[in-house]
Amino acid sequence: MEKLLAKIRKLAAKQDVYIVGGWLRDRLLKRANRDLDLAASGSPLALSKKIARSLRGRLVVLDDEHKIYRIVLRGHPDLDYIDVARLRGKTIMEDLANRDFTINAMALAVPDDGIVDISRRVDPFGGGKDLSEKTVRMVSPGAFADDPLRLLRAFRLAAELNFHIETRTLRRIRKDARLISRSAAERIREEFFRIFAVNDSAGWIACMEKTGILQQVIPEISRMKTSARRFYFHPHGLWQHALETLRSLEDILRRTAKFFPKNAGQIERHLDETISSGVSRRELLKLIALLHDVAKPRCARRVGNRMRFLGHETKGAVMAAEIFTRLRIGRKEIRVARRLIEHHMRPISLGQSKTTTRRAAFRLFRDLGADVPDLFLLSLADCYSYRHLKTRKTVDLKTQECTVRNLVALYFDEKEKPSRPKLADGHLLMRTFALQPGPLIGALLTLITEAQDTEKITTRDEAMALVRKKLTPLKKRYKIK
Hints:
481 residues; Hydrophobic Seed Protein; single chain; six-stranded mixed sheet; 4 domains; Beta Polymerase, domain 2; alpha+beta; 10 strands
């Protein structure tokens, strides 16, 4: 690192170059940070080109209008990126005055010898003091108007660092919350998922809701707060249930070994997977948990003396897809969200039945595919959200936990088995039984698959015999002569 900084100082020639932002903050906190931020008085592009050539990195334009550039490094022991920006003002003091939070408004001139001496830093707003007091504080009341994304960044920084947000800063966030609509959806999405990456994101989501910033990002939450208060199980209504589901999910994720002693390692590896946009299944599942009942206000109907939410799973899947699309979340993640929300009641139904057949289990596995573990975690969190209520919803938590644990074990056992041979396809069925393409073919293939999954048949001859046995009643069902 010393050699790298000395090289940068030499490449900068007569320019003033400062280390700023997160790397300096994390150095004070003794935290690793592989992204170095630099502010230069001269041309940041010219300096970035020199650094990229010298370090054999790749130059990326992050924001040409504001003169921000990135050098992507390969194989460096200390850094992945170096971001170079133009000073925001004529001097480093003016630059720091334009930054977001005091803990990020510190600077250190890049030393000639590359040796970092933190005591020589420039700290005009007390960032070092706020670090020691674990406080996120705005540099100025205009900080959020200058860049509204800072409204979310305040929560993300506090969540990642386990800090608190200073009272005046929270009041300003509440006042300026509507400004978040000026920020690009992609930037909002990134901050949002970084909040979900911490272990206690539910507490920060609740804090965001109190300031109003959460409702600005997801307006549907406003209706979740006001609707279904009088007739929902939780005393503060549907929004309380959503938060308790997220809290319950995080509690389960912290204790997977307790809930799933046989499969904890497999679940952890599964949750660490990314689907397409760099977001882990763990983070995605938390957002889905928060929104799994988003359609209940639209589906609320009084039936006799009870309030029912018929169809909220299907409608909720559509609404969640709309929210995800607004946040520029990837299409694969949207498919996962739709699938989980649409089917989130099925594990509860299985748990309430006296016996769960292998056929029912394998049908669920087939419908959910790789998203089966996510569904079971979501369903269990949904049930556990009621555990602190005096009047508990009529779900036996221990029975549900046992059902989910057994089904998760069955899923992973089946997943690790060698794939079964395909016993038949549509062309074979049409040729053998003189059938035309249509829904009957799909029904017959499902029949074969379910029988094979439950080990009732293992050969093609047995599959054909099963089709012969069931063909006549299935033809009647589909009105085929």
